[in-house]
Design brief:
Elements (H helix, E strand, L loop, with lengths): L1 H9 L4 H46 L11 E8 L10 H13 L3 E10 L4 H17 L5 E10 L1 H6 L4 E4 L4 E3 L11 H7 L23 H26 L14 E3 H7 L4 E2 L2 H9 L4 E3 L6 H20 L10
Helix pairs in contact: 1-2, 2-10, 3-4
Length: about 325
């Protein structure tokens, strides 16, 4: 090819060499046109995507989020771990509770619980708010309905309700406090690693897994757990009252099925949210008060993920090996 181009420049190229040059130029023109088309396509796609986002932004504000105008039962979901960083955090649940209690057409509130528990602080905030709202609105009862599991901090919250319902196979209870960790002191000695830790305060590093524990610190930490456990027990007793059976295992941290929990007084009856709304509250219509992202944000997130996946596939970046 280089020889053909050189001969063409000198005016001595053969017919075969001219055909080769012509073929090369045609190929270059085709690639340029193709690149130009793709460039226009992606620009149009990007502009269309941006206009769609703007449209969703303004349209999302007009999406109706009004509560049903007729009488209904309010539902608030408490699912997954209960912590400040998770979906079931105190702020989210409390705002939902306030909205439900403020709505005159909401005749009762059901806390639909499916959680293994979590932070006693977050659970305590929710418990206290339920009690406060009930005092201000004595005509609006609160029911807790446990689905798969309502344990530990989740049961702490449920105990604030007027009545608790569960399925016969639900897991209920775990009224206890746990804290765990690991100790690596002997392992460090075996591998020849020296721990260097500098503190101000005699017990500042008492939970450090690389330092040996001592009996006084262990006793102190146990007293913290016992105090927290007592607070948990007191709140459950306050919420459940005389319905609790006198059983020494009740506050041992064990869990029971919904059927067993009824016998122990941890649960008042067996049934789903629909059953409680229909048969107990006598207001069958359910309205979900659980806070959710604005509709346009949900759509934007889904579009963004889909767009990113499509682009990565086109660029050959979506062929990663599965973890084994």
């Amino acid at each position: 090819m280089d020889k053909a181009i050189k001969n063409a420049q000198e005016g001595v190229a053969s017919k075969k060499e001219w055909k080769l040059i012509e073929k090369l130029l045609n190929g270059l023109f085709v690639e340029q046109r193709r690149a130009r088309r793709w460039g226009i396509f992606f620009k149009l796609l990007m502009f269309g995507y941006l206009f769609l986002l703007l449209g969703l932004f303004f349209a999302g504000k007009d999406i109706a989020t009004d509560v049903a105008p007729e009488a209904h039962t309010a539902i608030i979901e408490i699912k997954g771990p209960i912590s400040a960083d998770d979906e079931s955090n105190a702020d989210t649940v409390i705002w939902a509770l306030r909205d439900a209690f403020k709505e005159e057409n909401a005749k009762a509130v059901i806390l639909r619980i499916n959680s293994p528990g979590g932070s006693p602080v977050q659970a305590g905030y929710i418990y206290d708010e339920i009690k406060r709202l009930r005092e201000l609105n004595p005509e609006k009862p609160v029911y807790a309905v446990i689905t798969d599991i309502g344990a530990s901090g989740a049961y702490y919250i449920a105990a604030a309700a007027d009545s608790i319902y569960a399925d016969k196979a639900s897991l209920v209870g775990s009224i206890g406090v746990v804290a765990g960790g690991f100790g690596f002191v002997d392992l460090m000695e075996k591998v020849g690693v020296e721990r260097r830790l500098y503190t101000a305060g005699e017990h500042k590093a008492f939970l450090d897994p690389f330092s040996p524990s001592n009996s006084s610190e262990k006793e102190f930490w146990q007293s913290v757990l016992n105090t927290t456990h007592k607070q948990f027990i007191d709140q459950v007793k306050k919420g459940r009252g005389d319905r609790l059976k006198d059983d020494p295992k009740l506050f041992s941290g064990l869990v029971w099925t919904g059927e067993q929990a009824v016998e122990l007084g941890l649960v008042d009856g067996l049934g789903s949210s629909s059953y409680v709304a229909r048969e107990v509250i006598k207001v069958e219509k359910l309205v979900d008060y659980t806070p959710k992202p604005e509709p346009w944000k949900q759509i934007v997130d889904e579009l963004g993920v889909s767009f990113a996946k499509a682009m990565s596939t086109q660029l050959g970046m979506g062929q990663s090996s599965p973890l084994r």
